[in-house]
Amino acid sequence: MTKAAIAPPGIALPAAEPALRAEPSPIREFWTRLKARRTAMVGLVIVVALILMAIFADGIAPYDPIATDWGAIRSPPSWAHPFGTDEVGHDVLSRIVFGARASLGAGLTSVALAVALGLPFGLLAGYAGGMVDLAIMRLTDALLAIPFLILAIALAAFLGPSLTNAMVAIGLSATSTFVRLTRAQVQAVAAEEFVEAARAVGNPPWRIAIRHIVPNIVPAILVQATLTIAAAIIAEASLSFLGLGQQPPEPSWGSMLNVAKNFLEQAPWMAIWPGASIFLAVLAFNLLGDGLRDALDPRQRT
Amino acid sequence: MVPESPKPLLDVRDLGVAFDSEGGAVHAVNGVSYTLKEGETLGIVGESGSGKSVHVLAMLGLIPRPPGRITGGQVLFAGRDLLRLPERDLRKVRGGQIGFVFQDPMSSLNPGMTVAAQIIEPLRIHLGLDGRAARARARDLLDLVRIPNAGARLDQYPHEFSGGQRQRVMIAIGLSCRPKLLIADEATTALDVTVQAEIIGLVQELKREIGMAIIWITHDLGVVAGIADTVQVMYAGRILERGPVDDLFRDPRSAYTLGLLRSLPDLSRGRAGRRRLHQIEGAPPDMRHPPPGDPFAARNAYATSRCLTEAPPLAQAPGAAPGHLVAAWYDLPARLAAEEAAR
């Protein structure tokens, strides 16, 4: 009874009030913060639209993207071909729609590969420390010494030209960034008192890593992954432009640019649309990534 | 119900802990020995770096190794030497037989897990409880630590709890598997004074209900006076004095304890008690090169020449209550009496 008398009301009694309202889970709270950022929402809408376009390409594209029409070679935009046609009579709009599969597919797949490899190795390096850490990090440093795109080109050339190999090459090139990021994040989280508290209740190390550390580094990984998707889309376009990615006649924004460069004066629409598509996709992922970073920033939590 | 056993619950013998650094090994804990009976509450006081926290963490293998290492000793808990227990078995002791409450309730709960999930964790590990049974137990534990509306609060996240409530949750986790020993490391230091009082009151009530032994680590003598049966004063990785709480406060035998007691403001005398607070001159020794003698000698006005060269053993203080031990070559009451007479 003395308790209530000693404690200010703010400490002894708040229990009843917050219990009545719906509990905001961390995910819902994050969504509220993300929604408040207009640029991030613009990025998200474009990303979702591009993904839907890639998935439902068959229904959206007016023509078969690899069907040639010798009656319409390099024809400018018209009602029949809103984005024009290319040098062998492919409908550019249809190729843009189907090309989203190559670009987004490469972006998502390669980053998924980079995270799938980078997260476990980063976790191992950051949590185990010692010789394991030393070995993993020296290898990572060596990889990071080579510029991202150069490494991707070298790997793609080594693996042989195909879209799948390009994805693998981009994914492997991006892995070292995720190893480093994961390691740094793991070290920061592992120093938190709640990790020590988790050890003090008898958790084995693997459980601490999976249950207590990984969930707390997901935000940072997610932000980095989103931004890396943008870089991977450019990398895929670059590889395809160089002939190391998507092989003709299958469409990809990068390989479309490769062909278009020969006709810049005669048929600029061949270059403008794939260029604009790459720009839009990269912009969208960057806006989304920046928004995620802000929304997940622990310093802005209350 | 507790059988009368001659063996103590915890028997620490000559424990030593060091941390390797670039400038040489830092000797954080040096030959600490003490015992704790079942159901006893031991308050350990000392300043930062006195080894009070490090030695309990070391007992349970919770210091990072490297750079930390155990340089020697034994820690017998319920008859087993914790220092020689394989990690697997030690994990069963942590959280199962020995519960822990950490200093900062704001950072010692995982922000991304619900309170229920965090209370259930030790229940699953040590008692094999899962699902509905674990949840019911978690609810009971929140009730136990007097969190109102426990059922509704289980699925909330730590940020929805106040500091005092979080510390109650930590205590619930610490007590979840009915440990024989609860170690609270500066458990009230980060809390408001009123909340401190609530938490201390709660721990005392729980002790009456459950009967576990407690090691309460703090630098706050007031907290120790309120909670402990026995007090142990640590300095530079050693125990300088140890005794029943009333006896030690009334009749300190170590100059360091005396210095700490004199540093407390005297609130009972109001404005009349206002004076410049006592300050212990100097700084603790560099623990990379611990002094050969009494570690407090350099700051101690009552030190004798022997204090500088030879470390005093912890032994029964002459004329004090039984169990009141001190590590000092000088006779503090005699010196104080002489000082008084000279004035």
Can you put this structure into words, describing what you see?
The complex is a heterodimer of chains A (302) and B (343). Chain A is mainly α and 302 residues long. Chain A has helices spanning 2-6, 9-12, 16-20, 26-35, 38-55, 57-60, 92-128, 130-144, 148-159, 163-190, 193-200, 205-241, 253-260, 269-296. In chain A, helix 8 (130-144) crosses helix 10. Chain A is elongated. Chain B has twelve helices and twelve strands. Chain B has helices at 52-59, 87-93, 115-127, 131-144, 150-153, 163-175, 193-210, 221-227, 245-250, 255-262, 305-309, 332-342, and strands at 10-21, 24-36, 41-45, 68-77, 80-81, 98-101, 181-185, 213-218, 230-235, 238-244, 315-316, 325-326. The radius of gyration of chain B is 21 Å and the shape is globular. Chain B starts with 9 loop residues before the first strand and ends with a helix. The model of chain B has no long low-confidence stretch (mean pLDDT 86). Chains A and B meet through helix 2, helix 3, helix 11 and helix 12 of A and helix 2, helix 3, helix 6 and helix 7 of B.
How many angstroms does the end-to-end distance of chain A come to?
32 Å
Based on secondary structure, the structural category of chain B is alpha/beta
* Oligomeric state: heterodimer
| Alpha-beta content class of chain A | mainly alpha
For the CA atoms, what is the radius of gyration of chain B? 21 Å
How are the SSEs ordered, and which strands pair?
The complex is a heterodimer of chains A (about 300) and B (about 350).
Chain A: H1 2-6, H2 9-12, H3 16-20, H4 26-35, H5 38-55, H6 57-60, H7 92-128, H8 130-144, H9 148-159, H10 163-190, H11 193-200, H12 205-241, H13 253-260, H14 269-296
Helix pairs in contact in A: 4-14, 5-7, 5-14, 7-8, 7-10, 7-12, 7-14, 8-10, 9-10, 10-12, 11-12, 12-13, 12-14, 13-14
Chain B: E1 10-21, E2 24-36, E3 41-45, H1 52-59, E4 68-77, E5 80-81, H2 87-93, E6 98-101, H3 115-127, H4 131-144, H5 150-153, H6 163-175, E7 181-185, H7 193-210, E8 213-218, H8 221-227, E9 230-235, E10 238-244, H9 245-250, H10 255-262, H11 305-309, E11 315-316, E12 325-326, H12 332-342
Parallel strand pairs in B: 3-8, 3-9, 6-7, 7-8
Antiparallel strand pairs in B: 1-2, 1-4, 4-5, 9-10, 10-12, 11-12
